[in-house]
Every structure is written in structure tokens, then in C-alpha cells.
Amino acid sequence: MAGKPVKKPVGRPPKSGSPYQQISKAMAKVFDKTIDGAGGAEGISALLIEEMTEKGRVIDVLKLFQSYLPRQHSVDMEVSGGDALSTALSAVASRLSDKQAERLNNPETIEAEYEEVSRNDEADSGKDE
Prior knowledge:
Layout: H1 19-37, H2 40-53, H3 58-68, H4 81-105, H5 119-127
């Protein structure tokens, strides 16, 4: 008599998920390697802070975050060019008026050497030549 009966394994063989699952796992591995190559989570956060503060790309970074957030945690934002432009122009106008007021309140004295020449001397110097 033979020993135990042989049973067929149930389900899919190991590591043979659907093509979507295989691609997802491969992309996750690539993403992890990329983050490790950029200095880990702290390196990525330093890059994002630099983009937002030094390069002034806050809206672009927020849009990027929004694409990775679940739908219930999406970031709602509205930017209109008119608002940003009018705000920027009013800030420039106020700075210019402040500078102009400062110049009027604190005039700068310019010292220079000069020589007085009368019109008669100028006319006489032209005849001798």
C-alpha cells in the first residue's frame, strides 16, 4: 500500500499573481530603491522643502501630493492669476512708495568740487583757439 495520498495545491502558484499585481510589486521595489538613493525619507523631505521655500514652487508640490493622497484627503486649492497678480502689484507699489517716502524724508547730500566759470571767460577761451 502506498503512503499518504498526493493532494494538488490550492490556488495560484507562489509569485504568479495577476499582471497588475506583478507590475505593482516591481514598481514598489523601484520606488523604494529610488527613495533610498535620494537619501531616504529625510532626503526627500529636504528636497521638497527646498522646492517650496527656495524655488517658490509651493503649488506644484501640493499638486504632486494631491495625486498621491486618497480621495477623501484631497487638498482643495484654487489659484486665480488675477488675485496673485494684483497682490504682487500692490506689494510692489507699497514698497516703491515706502522707498520714495524714505528718500524724501532723508535727503542724501552729495559733495562735489566744482570750479565757477563765467560766461565771459568761456567766450574768451573760445576766441584764442
